[in-house]
Design goal:
InterPro entries: SET_dom (IPR001214), SET_dom_sf (IPR046341), SETD3_SETD6_MTase (IPR050600), SETD4_SET (IPR044429). The chain is an alpha+beta fold. It is built from 15 helices and 13 strands. Helices cover 47% and strands 12% of the residues. The protein binds S-adenosylmethionine.
Length: 398
């Protein structure tokens, strides 16, 4: 087929479209987000160099409105607009929970979810209304997966996803008698769907704050979850370098970035969960080509890659590998297989290993000792991998 040659104007236009499509779209005119910022300002928030924006690939997040230096505190949210167990216990819900604690005690996630639902139900009359309006309406976490979607997961992931659904259902059922008896204003609105929304807000957005240790709540789980308005708009990146936490000196929840950002960059933190399976289960997203992602490789899978060997030979090799400690970190990342997989493959591929067993053992031990003694030596070990097949060949042919 004859290819049509396009002109310079067409190429320029195409480049502009591509650039436009990869640019963040500032959410400066979004009514809910304007109200959120006004609510924050009215409650002693002194502002920040961040603006909500929609980014291609990661969705809604925050954009730097000026260049940011490494070491800067980019956001400090005052204590009075944090939602934690302390907030719940000092509200009307807290009074009811204290009374009910003789019958049973609920977890931090359960009471925070109830609190959110009660406040959502109050509408504009709620102090938290601007924050609640800024929250997503739906989520992509496994508790929202249909049966078909669950079945598409790998068996182990499927089990974990089903466990999360069971945990949510249990949390909901457990609260029903309390809601029916103590919260008449919520009763008919306390549906599974409504609770799932509040639960998902909690599970995907809470940050850590010092344990509340309330005797009125269940001690089965730590009472550390805290919702931090605005700060919870920051998306995750596995490579983000930032520290965040509650600062007792300033009484604010703060984020300090440890790397510089340019104006219009998306600012990230790391949620602490790194592999895609964890990110998907806990937060409902994955990072394409996640550098922290890996798959585990079993020894039996490695054996399958090699020509058939006798049972005796197989046993000898497995024994040698167990002794050598090489069977840890049998993984493959986007950067390729680990050096341990590489060395196991080399042991498995070499012939007549039992003839020179002690020589081989010593060689492996020395190399492992070198690796664990110094990072620089890892480079040497990598280099030695090129030599290992030659050494192995020489050893097995003495
Ligand atoms: C703490 S919130 C961050 C703000 C959120 N994007 C919002 O619009 O409200 C966490 C949620 O953001 C989304 N998210 C965070 N990091 C992401 C990323 N790197 N890629 C895609 N989605 C991401 C996920 O839906 C996750 O459950």
């Amino acid at each position: 087929m004859a290819s049509k040659k396009r002109g310079r104007t067409w190429r320029k236009r195409k480049k502009r479209t591509r650039e436009r499509d990869s640019r963040p779209v500032c959410q400066g005119k979004d009514k809910e987000l304007i109200n959120l910022q006004q609510f924050m300002k009215a409650n002693d928030f002194t502002g920040c160099p961040l603006k909500p924006a929609i980014f291609p690939g990661t969705g809604r997040g925050v954009m730097a409105v000026r260049s940011i230096k490494a070491g800067e505190v980019i956001i400090a949210v005052p204590r009075k607009i944090l939602i934690s167990c302390r907030t719940v216990l000092s509200s009307r819900l807290g009074i009811e929970l204290k009374k009910w604690s003789i019958t049973s005690r609920f977890t931090c996630a359960q009471v925070l979810s109830l609190f959110l639902l009660l406040e959502k139900n109050k509408g504009a009359a709620s102090f938290w209304h601007p924050y609640i309006r800024s929250l997503p309406n739906t989520f992509t976490t496994p508790v929202y997966f249909t049966e078909t979607e669950l079945n598409a997961l790998s068996p182990s992931l499927q089990d974990k996803a089903r466990d999360l659904k069971k945990e949510l259902l249990h949390a909901y059922n457990d609260l029903e008698p309390f809601v029916a008896s103590s919260l008449p204003e919520l009763d008919s609105k306390f549906t599974f769907d409504a609770f799932r929304w509040a639960w998902s807000v909690l599970k995907t957005r809470t940050l850590y704050q010092e344990d509340c240790k309330s005797p009125y709540l269940s001690k089965k789980e730590p009472q550390t979850s805290t919702l931090v308005p605005m700060l919870d708009l920051i998306n995750h990146s596995p490579s983000a370098k930032a520290r965040f936490g509650y600062n007792v000196n300033t009484s604010c929840y703060e984020v300090r970035v440890l790397e510089p950002y340019r104006k219009y960059d998306q600012v990230f933190i790391s949620y602490g969960f790194e592999e895609n399976t964890e990110l998907m289960l806990k937060f409902g997203f994955y990072v394409p080509r996640n550098p922290k992602d890996f798959i585990k490789i079993n020894l039996s899978e490695l054996f399958e890659c090699l020509p058939q060997i006798s049972d005796d030979e197989r046993k000898n090799k497995v024994d040698l590998l167990f002794d050598s400690g090489l069977l840890s970190n049998q993984t493959c990342t986007w950067n390729g297989i680990s050096w341990q997989v590489m060395s196991v493959l080399q042991v498995l591929a070499s012939n007549d290993i039992d003839k020179n067993r002690s020589l081989f053992q010593n060689l492996l031990k020395q190399v492992i000792y070198i690796v664990s003694s110094d990072m620089i030596m890892i480079t040497l070990w990598r280099f030695s991998l090129f030599l290992l097949p030659i050494i192995a060949y020489k050893l097995t042919n003495v």
